[in-house]
Automatic annotation (TrEMBL):
<dbReference type="Pfam" id="PF13347">
    <property type="entry name" value="MFS_2"/>
</dbReference>
<feature type="transmembrane region" description="Helical">
    <location>
        <begin position="420"/>
        <end position="439"/>
    </location>
</feature>
<feature type="transmembrane region" description="Helical">
    <location>
        <begin position="92"/>
        <end position="108"/>
    </location>
</feature>
<keyword id="KW-0472">Membrane</keyword>
<dbReference type="InterPro" id="IPR001927">
    <property type="entry name" value="Na/Gal_symport"/>
</dbReference>
<feature type="transmembrane region" description="Helical">
    <location>
        <begin position="21"/>
        <end position="46"/>
    </location>
</feature>
<feature type="transmembrane region" description="Helical">
    <location>
        <begin position="388"/>
        <end position="408"/>
    </location>
</feature>
<feature type="transmembrane region" description="Helical">
    <location>
        <begin position="162"/>
        <end position="182"/>
    </location>
</feature>
<keyword id="KW-1133">Transmembrane helix</keyword>
<feature type="transmembrane region" description="Helical">
    <location>
        <begin position="52"/>
        <end position="71"/>
    </location>
</feature>
<keyword id="KW-0812">Transmembrane</keyword>
<dbReference type="InterPro" id="IPR036259">
    <property type="entry name" value="MFS_trans_sf"/>
</dbReference>
<feature type="transmembrane region" description="Helical">
    <location>
        <begin position="120"/>
        <end position="141"/>
    </location>
</feature>
<protein>
    <submittedName>
        <fullName>GPH family glycoside/pentoside/hexuronide:cation symporter</fullName>
    </submittedName>
</protein>
<feature type="transmembrane region" description="Helical">
    <location>
        <begin position="332"/>
        <end position="356"/>
    </location>
</feature>
<feature type="transmembrane region" description="Helical">
    <location>
        <begin position="308"/>
        <end position="326"/>
    </location>
</feature>
<feature type="transmembrane region" description="Helical">
    <location>
        <begin position="234"/>
        <end position="257"/>
    </location>
</feature>
């Protein structure tokens, strides 16, 4: 018992102020001006401006993101072993932010003087630097702040909700105004250059503010403070924990569902015959979610994570059924998107809290501090999920016979757009429902937290849960 208590000094942290929660959420606002900007517009920029085929772009992104998704676990270990004056996660959030902004600008400025092969190499290298190095370091560290800032369950759900409110505001702004801004700045490469410069600043400055101002109060301490936790033991305790695996799958599915983000601009342009409807679709898909996230902490707190999330996912399934039967009717399509957004609110609000809880479960069972490492699954799931998502969008367009800039598209291309907008996301929602149903830890998590507070972790933990 004594060694277990020495292994970690775990005390209840003070309640977070609203100012600190908002400062934390500001970071996800900035991060999306890199990641969502890339996820939503990389394909159409590369096909219609840089002149690179959709299938090639999809393949490059898939290779980069899937490989990078598995390396995120190593970044979690780096965060856990960081010892800096600023903290464990904060320095990574602060110092990688400006580099991330610069690289995002470079990705949307493919040199026209390069030949086709040169362009492909350029895109792959810049994208790999973003995905595998600087966004990985930034996002794993940022996500782990939820655990480092507090061990209070309500504050964790609140941080998750506020984080995604800021994220969705950024996503809504990006999806609504990017095409308009590109045209306003002159269109073509010139337009993308100005927009990329603006978004680079909107990426770097908020993230730097988060990294500088938030505080780390809930840091697990090893028995030997000079000893570093090795990578392989961390990986072992994570991949042998069923809740870690289920939560990783949940994150993967959450981002796989977002093929609708990558295809929305094509859908508005070629299925609805009005590219200006991109903004309307984005508002319908995101604004209800932003509003709903203000109420998510109380709703989830009252009914519990599992019941709240799966009730919402049932609502989402109903919404997709509406969209199936009204895929070319703007009014009913918008209604379906609004209902779907409402249904997804509980899961988005609870995602970060689920990961923090899983970190407690892994630490309680193994005795290995994994606050940073467990949050690497959020980045890994996002990278792999969005990598596959981008590839699916590119491949489906290529298979369907999409022709960049054509006034009319083939029936195959239209079917591909509908599949990525409606049918594939519906399948992922059904799979998320099944995954959440298997996450049955809520009944014993209070006892787990009590054990941790008393130092009963690893071999000293309660055995009969």
């Amino acid at each position: 018992m004594e060694s277990a208590q020495q292994e970690r000094n775990y005390k209840k942290t003070q309640k977070l102020t609203m100012n600190e929660k908002l400062t934390f959420g500001l970071g996800d606002f900035g991060a999306n001006y890199s990641w969502t900007f890339i996820a939503s517009f990389i394909t159409i920029y590369m096909t219609d401006t840089a002149g690179i085929g959709a299938g090639i772009i999809g393949t490059l992104i898939l290779i980069s993101r899937v490989a990078d998704g598995f390396t995120d676990l190593y970044m979690g270990k780096v965060v856990d072993n960081t010892k800096a004056k600023m903290g464990k996660a904060k320095p990574w959030v602060f110092w990688t932010a400006p580099i991330l902004g610069i690289l995002t600008f470079m990705l949307f400025n493919v040199p026209s003087s390069f030949g086709q092969t040169g362009k492909i190499v350029y895109v792959f290298l810049i994208y790999f630097l973003i995905s595998a190095l600087f966004y990985t370091a930034n996002n794993v560290a940022y996500s782990s702040l939820t655990s480092f800032m507090t061990n209070d369950k309500k504050d964790r759900v609140s941080l998750g909700s506020i984080r995604f409110i800021f994220a969705n505001v950024a996503v809504l702004s990006i999806n609504t105004f990017t095409v308009l801004l590109v045209d306003a700045f002159g269109g073509g490469q010139q337009g993308w250059t100005f927009v990329a410069a603006l978004y680079a600043l909107l990426c770097a400055i908020p993230l730097m503010a988060t990294g500088w101002f938030v505080k780390e109060r809930n840091v697990a301490e090893k028995k030997n403070k000079e000893e570093k936790t090795a990578f392989l033991p961390i990986v072992k305790v994570l991949i042998t924990n069923k809740y870690f695996i289920l939560t990783f799958v949940l994150y993967l599915l959450w981002y796989l569902r977002q093929t609708e983000n990558g295809i929305r601009v094509y859908y508005a342009t070629y299925v609805l015959d009005n590219p200006d409807l991109m903004g309307v679709l984005s508002v319908a898909a995101l604004l209800p979610m932003i509003i709903g996230l203000f109420f998510a902490p109380k709703f989830v707190g009252k009914f519990g994570i599992k019941k709240s999330v799966n009730a919402g996912l049932i609502v989402s399934v109903i919404a997709y059924v509406i969209m199936i039967f009204s895929s070319e009717n703007v009014t009913f399509l918008v209604i379906g998107l609004i209902i779907n957004a409402i249904g997804l609110v509980p899961l988005q609000g609870a995602l970060t809290a689920i990961v923090a809880d899983v970190g407690d479960l892994v630490y309680w069972k193994s005795g290995v501090p994994v606050q940073g490492s467990v949050f690497s699954l959020t980045s890994a799931g996002m990278k792999i999920g969005q990598g596959i998502t981008s590839a699916l969008v590119g491949w489906s367009l290529a298979i369907g016979g999409y022709v960049a800039g054509a006034t009319m598209q083939t029936d195959g291309a239209t079917i591909a757009m509908k599949t990525m907008m409606i049918y594939f996301p519906l399948a992922t929602v059904i799979l998320m429902f099944i995954t959440v149903a298997l996450l049955n830890y809520e009944k014993f998590i209070p006892k787990v937290k009590e054990d941790i507070e008393n130092g009963y972790v690893g071999e000293a933990r309660t055995k009969n849960l």
